[in-house]
Design a protein that fits this description.
The complex is a heterodimer. In chain A, 68% of the residues lie in helices and 0% in strands. Chain A contains 15 helices and no strands. The model of chain A has no long low-confidence stretch (mean pLDDT 90). The termini of chain B are far apart. The N terminus and C terminus of chain B are likely disordered. Classes of the chains: A mainly alpha, B mainly alpha. Chains A and B meet through helix 2, helix 6, helix 7, helix 8 and helix 9 of A and helix 2, helix 5, helix 6, helix 7 and helix 10 of B.
Chain lengths: 304, 303
């Protein structure tokens, strides 16, 4: 009672926050009226209330198991995430190394200003910008045809290589500057006397990077890599949703886009969409927790 | 004299520019050109006139400057409405988000508040597990947020990550600062408003800008929750025009184009809308840049 009185303002102040999380995060999970995640186990009806829906057990999960397009989306999610880990993840680190070698603060700041800007634009806008360059009448195809090539359908083709390159390059365009900030900050926090000592020992520029800078940011890199692994099932919905079409669907459709399609677009099946969503959420949850535990065990830098 | 003699070689050594330096500069300049080029192309196409767009395949320098495309963009059905919706969502959304986020961050930063730990895990859990699209959508429907401008303001009210950033900032403020006020009998609301908020300007500016950019850039909520074209946010209109090709240009605009014999290439029209949508971000970018390094660092390293 004493505590309640003593902290009454804190409780009062927390009410809006609590209400927000209950209504917008927890009510969708557990909800006697709309069904929450339980609707994945019931037959969906548009007109009847949830309480009258029929229990169907694991019917939608079995359906998911048998649907080839689900496994295509599942496979795409994982291969795209791995491709990103291999080809995207190291780029901001390399950029940070390069920017760190620039002696002029002004030029470095200029570069960072330019590289970071696209991060603050929406994916709709970024894809819109790039579509104009990449479409058949666009500039890139203009150059290709003037060199004697044939126009290439960058935005509508089913080649794995071309689509993955598009995903990785557009994401780098949008994010590389932003992602490199954290590495630059880690580099900035390296004790400058280490560099001086290395120079006294006769280390050249490459040796300084290899023996001072890299060890200095290694722990940050490992932690970010592990956290990224925890996110393997969360492709980049915003990016892929704005690039996906009938031609490249089998190559780039990821689970989130797949779930959206069954929830709102074609052959709508809300219970099935809820089941796929739940399947993804459960695996994703385990991966994130595992990634965080590993990151925590590894060092002082951690998320929670 | 001896001192200068002694200094000169060192200064020369540090100024010596090697081949590697030149390569790095060239590489970064090339990269900067590649990064800026899409924006250059955007402006170029948006001011090009119809004939130039049709006739020139490799259009890299302006042949004509024609602002008609912008005039037509403004005449797109519901363009002005959409811009107003986006401004409303951004301004009101950011204000409300900041109030609620600050309150939450303050409460979770109190060291001896008994439920601190429980509340913290209560909100952090939602970063790891979500109900999924359909169960979430059905609750929005129950709440009457379909075709409702508040649907783009209230559901994204709190970003848990930003709330934690702010809590970390409050936690890093030494408690003695508020001690004397507490002895004078100030309650938590007074301490937050009169003492913590004024000294937390950097984090408040950072998080406000993050929220504002998020609200301005949002098209997803509009796509899911809004069907009424009058309530569409600008980013959704942009998506319908540029990506989904589902925007009906409307008979008014067709009539104007026919009677005034204005020819507008769809690419120019698209790029004009893209440019208009970029401008607000460009305007806040210098402020963002001033703060975001702090923001991202606070978030990723501590917690």
């Amino acid at each position: 009672m004493h505590g309640l009185q003593r902290y009454k303002y804190l409780y009062l102040m927390f009410i809006p926050v609590l209400v927000y999380y209950i209504v917008f995060c927890y009510a969708p999970m557990i909800n006697p009226q709309t069904g929450g995640i339980l609707m994945a186990f019931k037959q969906h009806h548009l007109t009847k209330p949830f309480s009258e829906w029929e229990w169907v057990g694991l019917k939608y999960f079995e359906m998911m198991w048998r649907k080839p397009d689900f496994w295509i989306a599942f496979r795409n999610t994982i291969t795209i995430s791995f491709a990103r880990l291999i080809f995207e993840f190291p780029v901001p680190i390399l950029l940070a190394f390069i920017l760190n070698e620039v002696a002029s603060t002004k030029f470095r700041r200029f570069c960072q200003t330019v590289f970071t800007f696209p991060n603050f634009l929406s994916w709709v806008l970024v894809i819109g910008l790039l579509r104009d360059l990449l479409q058949v009448e666009g500039l890139v195809n203009g150059i290709i045809t003037s060199l004697g090539g044939r126009p290439y359908q960058f935005l509508a083709n089913s080649s794995v290589f071309s689509n993955y390159a598009l995903l990785i390059l557009t994401n780098l365009f949008k994010n590389v500057g932003w992602a490199s900030i954290i590495y630059l900050a880690a580099i900035a926090s390296i004790d400058p006397t280490l560099y001086e000592a290395a120079k006294v020992d006769g280390a050249n520029r490459w040796q300084c990077i290899r023996y001072v800078t890299w060890p200095g940011i290694k722990s940050t890199t490992v932690v970010l890599l592990i956290l990224q692994c925890g996110n393997i099932l969360n492709g980049n919905f915003d990016q892929i949703f704005n690039l996906v079409n009938g031609v490249n669907r089998d190559v780039i459709e990821i689970l989130d886009v797949y779930i959206y399609r069954y929830a709102f677009q074609q052959s709508i099946n809300q219970s099935f969409a809820a089941a796929s969503g739940l399947f993804k959420a459960v695996i994703s949850f385990s991966l994130l927790i595992a990634a965080n535990q590993i990151a925590r065990a590894l060092g002082e830098e951690r998320l929670f | 004299m001896r001192m200068t003699q002694h200094r000169t070689p060192a200064r020369l050594a540090s100024r010596k520019i090697s081949v590697v330096d030149v390569a790095i500069y060239l590489f970064l300049i090339l990269l900067a050109v590649i990064m800026v080029f899409p924006f250059y192309n955007m402006i170029l196409v948006s001011v090009a006139d119809y004939v130039d767009i049709i006739e020139t395949q490799i259009y890299v320098y302006p042949k004509s400057i024609d602002l008609q495309n912008y005039r037509m963009a403004l005449l797109l059905p519901n363009f002005v409405n959409s811009a107003l919706v986006s401004v409303f969502v951004t301004v009101v959304g950011t204000l409300l988000s900041m109030v609620v986020t600050t309150l939450g961050a303050y409460v979770l930063s109190r060291r001896n508040f008994p439920l601190k730990g429980f509340f913290f895990y209560f909100i952090v859990f939602t970063m790891y597990f979500g109900a999924g699209l359909i169960p979430w959508y059905l609750v929005m429907k129950e709440l009457g947020l379909i075709n409702n401008i508040w649907g783009m303001v209230i559901p994204p009210l709190i970003n848990t990550f930003y709330l934690i950033l702010m809590r970390n900032y409050f936690q890093s403020i030494p408690p003695d600062i508020e001690e004397s006020a507490r002895i004078d009998g100030a309650n938590d609301i007074q301490i937050l408003v009169n003492i913590l908020v004024p000294i937390s300007a950097p984090i408040i500016a950072t998080i406000s800008l993050f929220y504002a950019v998020d609200r301005w850039n949002d098209w997803w909520l509009g796509m899911i929750l809004i069907q009424d074209p009058k309530l569409m946010p600008l980013q959704l209109l942009l998506r319908n025009l540029v990506i989904a090709n589902t925007l009906d240009l409307g008979s008014d605009m067709m009539n104007i184009m026919r009677t005034s014999r204005i020819q507008v290439h769809s690419r120019s029209l698209q790029m004009a809308v893209v440019t208009i949508t970029t401008i607000p971000i460009l305007l806040v970018y210098p402020f963002l840049q001033k703060h975001f390094t702090k923001g991202i660092l606070l978030g990723s390293i501590k917690a």
